[in-house]
Amino acid sequence: MVKVDHAAPDVTRGQSSLRRDVGLIGLMWASVGSIIGSGWLFGAKNAVIAAGPAAIISWGIGAVAIVLLALVHAELGGMFPVAGGTARYPHYAFGGLAGMSFGWFAWLQAATVAPIEVEAMIGYLGHWKFGQGLQHASDGTLTASGFVFAIVLMAVFVAVNFLGVKVLAHTNSAATWWKIAVPLVAIFVIAVGNFHPHNFTSEGFAPYGIKGVLSAISGSGIIFALLGFEQAIQLAGESRNPKRDLPRATLGSVAIGAVIYVALQVVFIAALPHASFAHGWANLAFKGIEGPWAGLATLVGLSWLAWVLYVDAVISPGGTGLIYTTATSRVSFGLSKNGYAPKLFEKTDKRGVPWFGLAMSFVVGVICFLPFPSWQKLVGFITSASVLMYAGAPLAYGVFAKRLPSFERPYRLPGGKLISPLSFVVANLIIYWSTWDTLWRLGVAIIIGYVLLGGYAVYANSKGLPDAPRMDFKAAQWLPVYLLGMGLISWQGGFGGQGHLGLWWDMLVIAGFSLAIYYWANAVALRPEAIERSIDEVVVVDTPAH
């Protein structure tokens, strides 16, 4: 048996590497800057329309789900502080096929966030004279001039990233202070003198029942709003002290985001005039609802705050789009390190920036504007892709807990053996609640990924390239069953499917199916020596070429 070194990998070895310029505040603000994006500008309105005042429960469930996933990621991020970590954990645990799959999910999620934030910025710019005409009034989709303007904004994101991670961290830190301050000001200023407790019950607290509460979690942007905690993990390879700072940054960012979003939902409901929802929460209407918080501020006589919110509607999504442009290049960097993508994605400039990955993030961002030309059209797709990406971490956690029990862990998750399978179940429930209409589209994107990455893997192996990935089909035998099974349950279920599985029974099926996949995956995962070899291979090459 290969001797197992239980120390965490030394990701700093090598003469040239991604620059380690980011401290705790930079890491935490990278995640908070992603969490506080366009989600806060739209989430409260969309959630209350879907669930009524019971949207507060939806936010609570969503926050608990994200915390469970973040706890698992916090331990893994400390164990493996490498660039693009989210895409690598399944690779370590299950080998090439699983690593390629979850790496594609991670890249797909990161690559589509920047475009949706651009669309949010353009939507709010319509309030200003120079921003009018960028979207069609009927459905909010981009006009020809809006498409050109969106390309310009994507180019700005890429240009800032080319200045290097240190400049990026400072830029995002400054923007994040603003992004946190504005919603907090909105919460307190609007609540003072405009808090009507009877709003929570006058038209029914949960008028659409439990299904409305659960649908709101995935479909109205709640999970999307809370996403982003993994950005600190994606920047692990550029952290000055990843073992200490990654868990703190991950959990701290989730705590900050959850508190702000729940408070926003409470105040939004309480401040609305009764006339705006007198015909039912599903028919919520008031002047300026296209920009709900700014419109609400105007409605209650706070014109100065409305002006601030319209400005913030550019800054907040802009900061999130900026950091996700970074994440896309770092995930593609990790995919290349594992042999799933050409080595060109590892090339960096003199500032240590993966320039080709950034260029590709720009190209894909522009392409996304074509099939998804509005915020609402893209948000459900991103949510399902994101949670599918996160679902790989609990699976990998279970493997490492069993096969590498003595491996150095700067942060150990209390009750991890219980929280890990529970978080996998919760992740799959969120995916299921995204509805069949979203999941079949995600399935198409997954197939495209297998064609692209799988095609490169076949090419690399046929040419005998030194970094050609090992597919490890045996260790990933559960994966096709998992993906097809989730699709089948969604198709037969009651959330946009055929309705053959009744409410509660469908969720019971999801839970049982998830636990079966979890323990099956743990049973067939790579042996300890194979996991160590995979880790060592990545550590040795975790220094980008110039």
Q: Secondary-structure element order, as H and E?
A: HHHHHHHHHHHHHHHHHHHHH
Individual helix count: 21
Q: What is the CA-atom radius of gyration, in angstroms?
A: 22 Å
Oligomer: single chain
Q: How many strands, what sense, and barrel or not for the largest sheet?
A: none
Structure summary, number of beta strands: 0
- Percent of residues in beta strands: under 5%
What's the end-to-end separation, in Å?
36 Å
Please estimate the helix content.
55-70%
> Which residues sit in consecutive blocks of at least 5 with pLDDT less than 50?
1-17, 539-546
Q: On the 0-100 scale, what is the average pLDDT?
A: 83
- Helical/strand content category: mainly alpha
> What gross morphology would you assign?
globular
Question: What does the secondary structure layout of this molecule look like, with pairings?
Answer:
Elements: H1 24-35, H2 38-51, H3 55-79, H4 85-94, H5 96-125, H6 144-162, H7 165-191, H8 209-219, H9 222-226, H10 231-234, H11 242-271, H12 292-299, H13 303-337, H14 355-368, H15 375-390, H16 392-403, H17 416-433, H18 436-462, H19 478-492, H20 505-524, H21 528-541
Task: Explain the overall architecture.
- With 546 residues, this protein is mainly alpha-helical.
- Helices cover 67% and strands 0% of the residues.
- The protein contains 21 helices and no strands.
- The longest helix has 35 residues.
- The radius of gyration is 22 Å and the shape is globular.
- The two termini are 36 Å apart.
- The relative contact order is 0.19.
- The N terminus and C terminus are likely disordered.
